[in-house]
Amino acid sequence: NDPNTYYQAWRRQGLYKVKNNELQFLYKYGNNTSPFGAAHTVVPRFDRHGNLWVTANRKNDNESIWILPAAKVASATPPLKADWITQKLPGVNTGELQFSRVIALKNADIMVHTPGDWGRPIYVIDESNINAANPTYLSVTSINDQDGSSLDWNYIFTLAVDNNDNVWVGYNNGLFYFNPQQALADRRLVGAGPEI
Asked: Which of 35, 47, 25 is nearest to 88 (CA)?
């Protein structure tokens, strides 16, 4: 919520925290503040409570998603590697090269994540307990649209959330959207929207 602070990731460099146009911290492979691997290009996003969620664009067999709690994000002291919470989702990091994306809903404690590469799923994650090593989630690799037709994807290139907390998915065959809250409640994902 601080307009003077932002996070920027660079390929093979890690994650930078910049405040008032000055570098505050570098979360880089090999230092004691970072859980990220050497070849990772990280993808940072904040949830609505100020927790920093990070995924990676390279395979990592041991971790899926890293979360830095809001209190550690706000601290003037650099966090330690041990301050990051790891959440594991089965099968997230089985691809060698990924187009990882993670977004937060605006009005609910839900994150949506995809590794993005060949045939990988979309994960709808209940983030009400970020300390859970194995969070409640829904994993889907295809959906049915409003007409009952199957929508399958090879690659997912982008995720966006609208003001109604629908998630729009740009994939190799077009565009669709779905409601993550409904998906978690129903334990299935139903999409809608144009196939372009």
From this structure: 35
Query: Residue 128: which residues within 8 A CB-CB, separation 6 or more?
Result: 109
Beta bridge partners of 103: 112
Alpha helices in 18-174 (DSSP H): 70-74
The encoded tokens of residue 34 equal 């970072």
Q: What is the pLDDT of residues 69-102, one digit of tens each?
A: 999 988 888 888 889 888 777 665 545 556 778 8
Residue 64, both tokens: 């899926």
For residue 95, how many other CB atoms are within 10 A of its CB? 18
Return d(Cα 100, Cα 102) in angstroms, integer: 7
This model's pTM is above 0.85: no
Q: How far apart are CA 38 and CA 64, in angstroms?
A: 15
Nearest C-alpha neighbor of 73 from the set 133, 6, 118? 6
Residues 6+ apart with CB under 8 A from 161: 103, 104, 105, 106, 112, 167, 168
DSSP 8-state class, residue 81: G
* Residue-wise pLDDT tens digits, 7-46: 887 766 778 888 899 988 777 766 777 777 655 667 788 9
Instruction: Extract the tokens encoding 194.
Output: 């144009």
